[in-house]
Write a structure and sequence with these properties.
173 residues; mainly alpha; 3-stranded mixed beta sheet; 41% helix
């Protein structure tokens, strides 16, 4: 996986275009609930305050996640539903390994955006493409949590990609 250093952000990730401003605001409103990057508490507070007051952020990681899922056809509400349903499986949460004697079972459907370490300070990061079957099935009427559980169960133990702090995966937008 090719990674981008946050200090070398390409121009495509410095703007929300082609996502309309109103939709960018919707993305920011849901991304504030599950931030796609690890931040120290002070920076997290400042980011939340900026999004709440201005309705939008120019943080490359947020723009990239929104563009990736938007290009795959996800709405902000669908991304939020997917993320929250993935997090209902405690094995998907970064704190799981810390509370289970340090054993972290990877899942290829979940990338780890690492803060200090996987069990302490890490965050999950979903990629759009592997979750396309979820999108199709939930739009066809299947229950989101059931589909998430089925998909996750098929991939436990498969290697997950790890995204080091200060970097994020490159994707073609």
């Amino acid at each position: 996986m090719e990674l981008i250093r946050l200090t070398e952000v390409p121009p495509a990730l410095q703007t929300w275009e082609p996502i309309p401003v109103d939709l960018a605001r919707e993305w920011c409103a849901v991304l504030i609930t599950h931030m796609p990057q690890h931040m120290q508490p002070t920076f997290m507070y400042l980011q939340q305050r900026a999004v709440r007051s201005e309705g939008i952020t120019n943080t490359a990681e947020w723009i990239w996640l929104a563009k990736e899922f938007h290009a795959a056809g996800f709405t902000p509400a669908e991304w939020l539903q997917l993320t929250e349903d993935v997090l209902t499986d405690e094995r998907a949460t970064p704190g799981y390994a810390g509370s289970n004697m340090g054993t972290y079972v990877s899942n290829s459907l979940i990338s780890l955006a690492v803060g200090k370490s996987i069990p302490n300070g890490g965050m999950i990061r979903l990629r759009a493409k592997p979750w396309m079957p979820w999108l199709e099935r939930t739009r066809a009427g299947d229950v989101s949590l059931s589909v998430v559980t089925e998909m996750l169960n098929a991939h436990w133990g498969e290697p997950a990609s790890v995204i080091p702090f200060g970097e994020f995966p490159n994707c073609s937008l």
